[in-house]
Amino acid sequence: MQEINQQKAEAFAGRMIGTLNEGAIAIMTSIGHRTGLFDAMSDSPTRPARRSPARRTWTNATCASGSAR
């Protein structure tokens, strides 16, 4: 009977968990896209301020004109 290498077993388990996590993220992303969740979140008035790469200024996502605050 062959002895199990604990380090190899833990490395395999870590890779397996990573693969399962990445698969779940892919499925959740697909569901969010198909249901329109991401579109709804982008129109949310509670969306925090974000950095505008074109203007290099901070803009408020709820501001209709997109002007800097």
Helix/sheet category:
mainly alpha
Encode the helix/strand succession as letters: HHEE
Give the assembly state of these chains. single chain
Mean pLDDT: 78
Task: Specify the helix fraction band.
Answer: 40-55%
Distance between the termini: 70 Å
Strand order of the largest sheet: 1-2
- Roughly how many Å is the radius of gyration? 22 Å
Report the biggest beta sheet as strand number plus sense, adding barrel if it closes: 2 strands, antiparallel
Global geometry: elongated
Task: Count structural domains.
Answer: 1
The unreliable regions are 62-69
Question: Beta-sheet strand percentage?
Answer: 5-15%
Total beta strand runs: 2
Figure out the total of helices: 2
Could you outline the blueprint of secondary structure elements for this entry?
Blueprint: H1 6-35, H2 37-42, E1 50-52, E2 57-59
Antiparallel strand pairs: 1-2
Task: Describe the protein's architecture and organization.
The chain is mainly alpha-helical. It has one domain (6-59). 52% of the residues lie in helices and 9% in strands. It has helices spanning 6-35, 37-42; strands at residues 50-52, 57-59. The protein has a two-stranded antiparallel sheet with strand order 1-2. A hairpin with a 4-residue loop joins β1 (50-52) and β2. The longest helix is centred in the N-terminal third of the chain and has 30 residues, at 6-35. The protein starts with 5 loop residues before the first helix and ends in a 10-residue tail after the last strand. The model is unreliable at 62-69 (pLDDT under 50).
